[in-house]
Amino acid sequence: MNIKIVLNRCIYLMLAIITLSSLGSCQSEDIVDNGLSDENIDPAFTIQPVDGSANRFTLVAQTKDALGSKWDLGDGAGMYIGKMTESIFLPDVGTYVITHGAIGRGGIVNTTTQNIVIATPDPVAGNLLKGGKLADAADWEQWTIANPASNASLVFANGYALLTASGWAGQGMYQAVNVIAGKKYMIDMVTSSTTGCSNTWFEVYCGYSVPVPGTDYSEGGKLRALSTWDGCATAPFSGKISVVGCKPENNLGIFTATKTGVAYLVIRGGGEDMKAGIKIQNIEMRPSL
User: How many Cα atoms within 13 Å fall on the side-chain side of residue 96?
Assistant: First the structure.
């Protein structure tokens, strides 16, 4: 074989490898807009009531040039990636601001909002808790602070309660609810922290004994949990505890009533350093369908 041809082939291969390496090393910030981004993606959507229900709706996004959809149902859980046609269930009375984000080329997301007003609670799956939205003083009065002498703090504000603690202190709140033997009840709430926590527990219980100030309630076992020892809540988080909480054994959220009568939903937490604290919103306890 001609030596010149062999040399030319080697040089070609070396140039090809160098070119591919250069392309592979490009960072996303080095890439400029190549004109493929779609800044005008249309986020329009329609709301279609489901026949026979005052609490169920179908959200339908327009699909032209859309690569995907993001939704916020106005329940405090924030925006999530969903389908372009979403079936939603809003069992409680209130005004829900529905936000749709259309994802276009280049990752552009444009949003628009519409309101859904629920005037009648769902007769089966309505929230058993009073003041679960923690919207104002009338809601706050439905809750009893479990350990008012603690060095920890649980403070109500418009739409949330903020739990903070340090030095291994603990604090909590509870509410009495009427339950029926044999029924299952699903418990959930929106929780968030802007900083995450250190050596911290946040737990949800439900039992028939009345909570005693200054003692740790544990009847029925943990139904929901955010524990840094179990690997969650160490970094900033936001969303329903069923999603952001520890999994799986401490995050099932189902209370099965063994007798008819008054039970107590208890939310408690504390630790060495909760930093900015854990915000609690939209607390729900509803019959499992």
Answer: 26
